[in-house]
Protein: Propionyl-CoA synthetase
Organism: Actibacterium mucosum KCTC 23349
Amino acid sequence: MTYAKSYAAWQADPETFWMDAAGAIDWDRAPSKALFEDNAPLYEWFSDGMVNTCWNAVDRHVKSGRGTQAAIIYDSPVTDTKATITYADLQTRVARLAGALAQRGVTKGDRVVIYMPMVPEALVAMLACARLGAVHSVVFGGFAAHELAVRIDDATPKAIIAGSCGIEPSRVVKYKPLLDDAIEQATHKPEFCVILQREQCLADLVDGRDFEWDAFQADAPLADCVPVEGNHPAYILYTSGTTGQPKGVVRPTGGHLVALNWTMRNVYAVEPGEVFWAASDVGWVVGHSYICYAPLIHGNTTIVFEGKPVGTPDPGTFWRVMSEHKVASFFTAPTALRAVKREDPAGDYIGKYDLSALRNVYLAGERADPDTITWAQDKLGVPIIDHWWQTELGYPAVCNPVGIELLPVKPGSPAVPMPGYAMKIVNDEGDEMPAGELGAIVTPLPLPPGTLQTLWNAEDRYLKSYLTNFPGHYETGDAGYIDEDGYLFIMARTDDVINVAGHRLSTGAMEEVLAAHPDVAECAVIGVSDALKGQAPVGFVCLSAGVDRDHGDIATECVKLIRDQIGPVAAFKQACVVSRLPKTRSGKILRATMVKIADGADYKMPATIEDPTVLDEIGAALKTLGYPG
Ligand code: COA
Ligand code: AMP
């Protein structure tokens, strides 16, 4: 099979293409067809099939003889722990937790928030929800109480499952006080919480509301898998949009199973039984799709890694894990490789390990700079595959489909659209741009199986954010161009989203937090280029009339405010006070021009600028912060 043939097969007959892919999934009732168009443009896939995600990710592998194979390898340099959980072990653990949740009243459709560090129990909790048809919503541990509270209010969970703490190299992050604070802040209250007590920090439990993980399930019966409709939500995952209210991406069950399973062989080029490792976090979509679900659905061994690319204990950690556990395919964010390269530019640590099992390395989450790709390729001697996707889509949309055919790699491009997608570059009017010209990236509807079905509690926002500007198409929010060979190049976002260390963050959300500072009249947050993290947020605030306080103090308070409200993951370390912000005559803040000044890039004076002299003050303020670097 070649990429061209596979893509042409999808183009010629998408229905047959996806029904064939659905044949690799165990259905309790097979779907009569793939695409359901009754509610277009709210398309659905496999809606009349009945299926259970946990059965497909766990039980069927035990049944087919993989019971003794490792399902999860836990490798935690920060706690000096390693453990292996076989598929048979995993089945018992998941069924037991599901049984305990069911005894406490959790049933199909109930939401369960999961706030856990990178421990196998996080996957057990996700799968236990899937077993019951309950809808989990995992919240990344680097978010502060306020962000957790916003998600609790939106998802209205019956239960919350949390860890007592996460371990960062520099500190133990106590999750339980953050959870208590979030529940206090939220209007909605969960009926109960299950807390995994970790020896690094034992949390205080609230009587009658909180249950310790082991005690909670000690006497529970093993629960069976509950079949759900193909369009039943598997999970809600919140992601950054333009405002402080995150978007709750709803992932449908049937398409999720079919599409993820398809990618394991065709994109990631692994066979069942091999070891697959995505070094991300279960709080992100990469963690959902490629730490938890896809490898397990496909019968692979997945690695739960609790550590960082550097400092836990050295820049050889990735290579140690790969050699020790015989990783065949590895996935990380470019930032992680940049961090390793910075500490070990000659790749000396790589030479210390046997990486003979490794066949391919995949990068996503942010732009992969050609320097990093070339460095990794030279040092590792395997293809370094940049691929592009988003929380909304759930799995690679544009990539080099190594499992089908390794196409020529063009550093700087994630390559070509996968079956299901037909990326186009359009101008503001929706006209298609010629090859090489920049514009918004869109793809025709329907999106393929496993992509977002809607936004939780926000169907109008779903329609407005993605389907309205370019009718008949999904708007990705990214801008870029397609070259003569059909390769896509991603250049920028078209909205207020920035990408910090592969983490998607909203400058709009940060501005909402800064605007709440009592001395701040108006503000702007921009993403400036950062050699390690890709982008870094920088805040500018203008003070209310009559405020006569030390500007340094106010900047420090702004930094603290964002850390307290959004969390350390925002990596918001720099703010400054300016007298005015650069604006157009209609009042729009010229953030893109500010970014160009910070990056030392050429820029054209915007024709509509109200007062060009404001840019001098912005330039001077940026200089004091060290920009351009
Ligand atoms: N719980 C609590 N705090 C967390 C956290 C978690 N799960 N994850 C990160 N944080 C904190 C960090 O401790 C840090 O806090 P600090 O400001 O006190 O130092 C802050 O959030 C920023 O974290 P991070 O962006 O990870 O920066 P870092 O300097 O700690 O590490 C890298 C830099 C490059 C090593 C790291 O960002 C990395 O591994 N990136 C890869 C990202 C990735 O895999 N993304 C997933 C998408 S594929
Ligand atoms: P997330 O939803 O967190 O996965 O972030 C998705 C966004 O990250 C995309 O819309 C892009 O802006 C960016 N992104 C992801 N992968 C890539 C890539 N390979 N190259 C460039 N940008 C990427």
